[in-house]
Each structure stands twice: as C-alpha cells, then as structure tokens.
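FORM 7B: Structural annotation worksheet

SECTION A. Query
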Amino acid sequence: MLKKASKIIGNNLVFRDARVDDADFILALRTKGKAGKFLSSTENDIEKQKQWLLKYANDDTQAYFIIQNKHGENVGTVRLYDQEGDSFCWGSWILLDGIPSTYSIESALIIYSYAALLGFKRSHFDVRKENLSVWRFHEKFGAKRVKETTLDYFYTISENEIQLSLKKYIKFLPHELDVDF
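SECTION B. Predicted structure
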C-alpha cells in the first residue's frame, strides 16, 4: 500500500523523493535547527546519513520526501512509514525556521491527500510533549491523543477527521494533487 512518488505537486509546495545528495540538507535540518530537538536523535555524521538514504532507496516500507517551494528551494522534510492495516504513521516533519506558516498546513494536507490516494484511511503518530506548537497543530486537525509516555503524546486521526480537515483548510490545497510515480 505504501508507494513512493518521485514528485507530488501541491498548491505552493512540491514533495520530491529524498536522494543521497539530500544528505547535507537533511542532516542540517535534524541537527542544527530548533525543530531537531523534538526528533529521535541523529548523529551529526554525513556518511551515516548518506548510508541511511542509500538503504532507504531500496526500502518499500516508507516514503521520505524533501519539501520544496515552487522555486525549487528545499524548505523541509516529511516521511510516511509504519503501515498498520489502513493506517500510516508520519513524522520526520521538519520545516525550516522562518518559512511561511501556511507551509505547515499545506504540507499536512498533502500528506493526508497522498495517503488517501494510496488507500490509507487513518493515521497514527507521536509528538514530543515539549513540542507544544506541533501537538496543538495536530489536535486542531482533529487528531485524538490516545496515550502518553514520559516523552511523547501518541495520536490517531480518523478518516472522518482527515476529510473534515481537507475541507476546512481547502484554501491551502484547492485542487487535487499532481503525483508522479
């Protein structure tokens, strides 16, 4: 069910499948920006990042995207993984500091639209408790907190809540996705 797209075109954003030559950008996002502190730890080692991306290229259990603006500038990353029946997990969602706030809404809408295109109906994910703005964002989208640990909140979002959010925020993604496989 999880299928990698080479490119997904939204309204103002384009998702492109991650490649080995993205290692510098990804590593900088994960280790230098303030968002990196809310992710699983990443060793600041470019060779390990390249090796991970090489392994990813042959991994059909996840899709990892570089998020670009319409000018082709890299502005973030996001990943779909951990399929459980008709539910998918998404994470590694990092956007550069200082980009338009609308990019977070559009990128979430692209994720949910793409996942629906692949046949997924629901999603599950976790957010660091300290990452207040992100877990609030997900709750505004209709995600329900289902459990917690010392570090994380765990969420699910239903097909109905996803569809309601796609309608509620339609001005951020007013047309169907253009997807190249």
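SECTION C. Observations
The radius of gyration is 15 Å. The beta strands are 7-9, 13-17, 63-69, 74-84, 87-95, 122-128, 144-148, 152-157, 178-180.

SECTION D. Sign-off
Analyst initials: ____
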